[in-house]
Amino acid sequence: MSVREFVVLGTASQVPTRHRNHNGYLLRWDGEGILFDPGEGTQRQMLRAGVAAHDLDRICVTHFHGDHSLGLAGVIQRINLDQVPHEVTAHYPRSGQRFFDRLRYATAYRETVRLTEAPVAADGVLAATPSYTLEARRLSHPVESYGYRLTEPDGRRMLPAALAAHGIEGPDVGRLQREGRLGDVTLADVSEVRRGQRFAFVMDTRLCDGVHALAEGCDLLVIESTFLDEDAALAADHGHLTAGQAAAAARDAGVRHLVLTHFSQRYSDPAEFERQARAAGFEGELTVAYDLLRVPVPKRR
């Protein structure tokens, strides 16, 4: 049975707190695992969440500020220590290659795993598999930063009433699905498009075209909301979003489930992020993230 869920490993911005670890997030998508922004302490948070090095197939770093990348060294060494049997691919801004190199070889260890470096230099598709297409979009932050979006290919849903009307049943249904036509009946006559699921991961950024492109039509959007709305000027100065800005972007994009994360340590009441997101008009499912939370990807429409 396929599993599609988002595992929150850490939710703090800039510095960890007693209750929030530095950033770290894992998307389980069927048989693959994509680790996003492994900050300091990610390896231990993986242990607490029941995530193993063997679960990782890709690592996606949005940018090279420490709270989003200092855990890379430990995670990469753990992948090698555990001798993960499959290739692991790392995506990160090409402009930060020197930082990636330093983190990958921060200390001495034995390399046993094929770690493929696939840096991001511009908007576009990074990988296309039968299960999903992974793409990146440039964001607006003081250092080069990219958000990531995963899109499942559209499929088709068979319509029992239409099949019955054309007298198609049993093995002929499978034949029609494989070949696209059975006599005078086409697949389009007895089925409808089943929209593929969409997921996006948007970290440190101001509002920009990239935010809107990544969020468009998402079933699950994970997005930073470092500041509350009363600190919007501070957010703009430092290249971040407020809870209201993040929620408004999700509202306009038709997002089904919004996950807010990456909270400044200056705030003590997480519920205020939800209140401001609702005040911005977002009416879908809303989660204010906390460490070790698991969020299922919404079922297909």
Summarize the structure.
The chain is α/β, with parallel strands linked by helices. It has helices at 42-49, 66-69, 72-81, 97-104, 160-165, 171-179, 209-215, 232-238, 243-253, 271-279; strands at 4-10, 24-29, 32-36, 58-60, 88-91, 115-117, 124-128, 133-138, 146-151, 155-158, 181-182, 185-186, 191-194, 198-202, 220-224, 257-261, 285-288, 294-296.
Number of strands: 18
Helix content: 25-40%
Mean pLDDT: 96
Q: What summary fits the major beta sheet?
A: 7 strands, mixed
- Which term fits the overall shape? globular
* Topology order in helix (H) and strand (E) letters: EEEHEHHEHEEEEEHHEEEEHEHHEHEE
Strand neighbour order, sheet with most strands: 6-5-4-3-2-1-18
Helical stretch count? 10
Q: Work out the radius of gyration.
A: 21 Å
End-to-end separation in angstroms reads 19 Å
Q: Report the β-strand fraction as a percent range.
A: 25-35%
Unreliable runs, pLDDT <50, ≥5 residues?
A: none
- Protein structure class: alpha/beta
Secondary structure layout:
Blueprint: E1 4-10, E2 24-29, E3 32-36, H1 42-49, E4 58-60, H2 66-69, H3 72-81, E5 88-91, H4 97-104, E6 115-117, E7 124-128, E8 133-138, E9 146-151, E10 155-158, H5 160-165, H6 171-179, E11 181-182, E12 185-186, E13 191-194, E14 198-202, H7 209-215, E15 220-224, H8 232-238, H9 243-253, E16 257-261, H10 271-279, E17 285-288, E18 294-296
Parallel strand pairs: 3-4, 4-5, 5-6, 14-15, 15-16, 16-17
Antiparallel strand pairs: 1-2, 1-18, 2-3, 7-8, 8-9, 9-14, 10-13, 11-12
